[in-house]
Amino acid sequence: MLNKNDYPLLGNVQKPADLKDLSTDQLVELAAELRTYLVNSVAETGGHLGASLGTVELTIALHHVFNTPHDRIVWDVGHQTYPHKILTGRRDQMNTMRKHGGLAGFPKRSESEYDTFGVGHSSTSISAALGMALAAELKGEERNAIAVIGDGAMTAGMAFEALNNAGDQKANLIVILNDNDMSISPNVGALNKYLTRILSSRTYSGAREGSKKLLRHFPPVMEFAKRTEEHMKGMVVPATMFEELGFQYFGPVDGHDLPNLVKVLNNLTNIQGPILLHAVTQKGKGYKFAEEDALALHAVTPFDPATGKKKSGEAKKSSGPTYTEVFGNWLCDVAAKDERVVGITPAMREGSGLVEFEKQFPDRYFDVGIAEQHSVTLAAGLACEDMKPVVAIYSTFMQRAYDQIVHDVAVQNLDVLFAVDRAGLVGPDGPTHAGSYDISYLRCLPNMAVLAPANENECRQMLHTGLQHKGPVAVRYPRGTGPGVAVEQELTTLPWGKAEIVNAGGGIALLAFGSMVETATIIGKKLGATVVNMRFVVPLDEAMIKEIADSHDHLITIEENTIAGGAGSAINECIHKLNLRSRVLNIGLPNSYDEHGERDELLAQCGLDQEGIEQKIASFLDTGEISAVTEKITATQ
Predict the structure, then answer these.
(1) What three-state secondary structure class fits 600?
(2) What is the Cα–Cα distance from 424 to 594, expressed in whole angstroms?
(3) Boundaries of CATH 3.40.50.970 in the chain?
(4) Is 193 noted as a catalytic residue in this protein?
(5) Cβ distance 479 to 599 under 8 Å?
(6) Which of 400, 476, 479, 599 is catalytic?
(7) Is 283 a catalytic residue?
(8) Superfamily for the 323-476 domain
(9) What is the pTM of this model?
(10) Quick check: is 314 catalytic?
């Protein structure tokens, strides 16, 4: 709980309405308190720190000027929304951030009426806010719709699609471009503050509109005036691309100058039509360790606020490399041998393990920004020219490029390798980031192969196998470390479409995919059951399935993907196709959106931990207890 003696202003803010009566000086003091509280809070829970520190003043100004939640504020991505959560009644719950049963790490409609739109992936805010603005117009309601979007999110085509449509609709929409990837330019000074305030004032706006009406009758003079205005503005503000899209552009303003932000936002409320305010902020503002290394403190685990260093925690499950590191090392190795290999990432260099690849092969490294669709079609174009493109992408982000995967890669049967990271449950980021569906949405595509490694070394060999294959291949692997199998430097091409028996038994057979093989092996040995590492979802090893079905009474499929349309469904289809009579149980992720929490907690919640799987097996065989399953299997052997 917050100590009001340490936070005299923040301690009295329970909701945004409490900001209305604060003076400008008090708002500045509140910003300092909020920033301190934010650092101390995230130090305990971990989370997205850098971006949130950069939006402290902007968040205060927005809630001070606008009447939220009646006025709609739509945040993009959500990395920068911790100050928003603190000021909207969730301050004392910040210690539960990203924990099971606690606050979500992103805006969530069911969590608060102030979270007007749920987010997780970037570049959706302008579209959503435009929809809200148009709805208000259709219903005859007076309300503001404000989208807050970062410069990184503006690299996505969806943002420009929304800008183009908003300019055409002439809706009353305010877009705030939170530009935190550059230092504050010389334009952001006293003169520019004055000009921006003048450009956003009711007097200037009225004079400009009145002049347009008057000069419309004198086209040559009108054109001269328009060019003169654009020339003068071009001397003190960036290019007027946004105005060409139909927006009235204001800025850039210093996003940390709270008094000026309040004045400018107040002025903007009096202007009709689509508006873009360009605010320049600094990631990690006000916390020196985050200012010095914004990337390192963008998303953090619990840390010591005095040093910025993360706290020592529990030892890793494995001392070996993570799957992401296995991929990164493999890519460097094959690129050194084959000049056709290129690496592509949609703005996830660090997360996807491409830092070293960029250093070693800068000419063959392509970071396309937050543009997943483009990353896939770029790879398709490279493949058309006999290059070997590898797209490093998270499972959840791959969803955004599905049309391109279908039409630009699979239909043309191009040699594109997808290294699908974060497949399965990922933990604290919640359902928007879970890789729960890639097997389901990939295995239905003709020409697409889908592979799932059971351990670190198999991941390396599968990536190599996929690179040699003619046609598109997706290798899906989970976040973090695996069972700790040593990675062999030698690259071996695995038998295409062949599964592997890892434990011979009888009675029942566990057909496991990827991350579930380790747990299935433990259970199988305990029960005396057969365990198969299926390896390939597509192409499925039908010969192995027939062999196992003919010699076992029960088949149990286990996967870390949704059951609906997943790998188990593929086995069901195979059994039906071959007219086999085996009794089958499919175990996987339920057809629901699971909440955030640690991965082990979520696996247990979904019944995908050892205990949960054993209980499902016991229930399936009508034995009640797993010990009875063992006796039943032993009796049949």
Answers:
(1) helix
(2) 12
(3) 64-91+104-283, 323-476
(4) no
(5) yes
(6) 400
(7) yes
(8) Thiamin diphosphate (ThDP)-binding fold, Pyr/PP domains (3.40.50.970)
(9) 0.82
(10) no
